[in-house]
Amino acid sequence: DAKVRSAMPQLLADCQTAGVSDLHLSAQARPFVRRHGQIHYLTEAPLPADVAEAANLTLLDEKQFKELQETSDLELALSLGHDQRFRACITLHKWGVSGAYRIVPPRARPLAELGHPDIEVLRRLLAYHNGLILITGPVNSGKTATLTAMVDEVNRTRSDHIITVEDPIEYVVPSESCIVTQRQVGDHTKTFATALRAALRQDPDVIAIGELRDLETVNIAITAAETGHLVLGTMHTADVTSTLSRLLDVFPPSQQAQIRAMVSESLRGIVCQRLLPAIDGGTALACEILVANLAVGNLIRENKLQNLGSVLETGMREGMVSMDSSVLELFKAGRITEEVALANIGNRALRALLQNLAHPPAAAADTAPAERKRFGLF
Hints:
By secondary structure, the protein is of the alpha/beta class.
């Protein structure tokens, strides 16, 4: 037990140093890490059940161990040093105990370092003092990093009160120009909804929500955005259209007209992102940005979300960009391969353009010397 207790913090620290994003230790399975989206096995032999149990339970306190026994699932944040923070999910399964550890970077990266195509568009969105900004994408797409970078941007450029509600807290954001209050679901509050209801009575200017996951949380977030607060939140959706569909469809039919009207007025923008494997072995950020304008508001009110794609194409002057265009630009810049680009572009015209760029038509055959002489070419 003593060896395991000292080995686990060192293993997690080594993962952080190596730029690993996730560590997985599961009974009767090979332990592995994920780096730049790729899986790398640490050993060829499966992890014995007793070793997996010891490794995953050694960092738990008595309260956390009891909760795991009662629920068979446990999510927690681990802080093992000044710059060492990890998000852990411990579960029980058929063969024993499994642990998934998200390695949190030592500091929140500023917006300028994340690779967004147009930082000024994001800064314009953050200049609002009310409204709703959504950061979306699949799992492991950097949503939390972008959300934290936005909170950090406000923290450095404005004098406000920021309240964050997270499950769990990954990045610690010290107060700078703003006062930052960070609350963790489970430790500091029961649910996202209860924390948001309390936040509205704490005189906030900016509210950041780790995940908009249920009707009550979404409802309070939209209400807060409409009543004079800037609300930032994340969702697990793939693009702008599916984001708005998910946001609105959680409400019953009887409330649809009212909610569409509220969202059409309060929405400021949506940032959808993906992390794609890059040629250099790292990752490249592809990003779709919708800036809410009069046309977007009308489409939301009239329930014509299928037309948002045309708004993205015509809104380039306002900083809008579609996911397909973003992926194509990454390919043109030499950041990603043709295969990765084709797998992430759905528009037929852009796919054809990409293939023409990758495989330009062969040049016409050179004119025969006799023909060149006949026409006075030399």
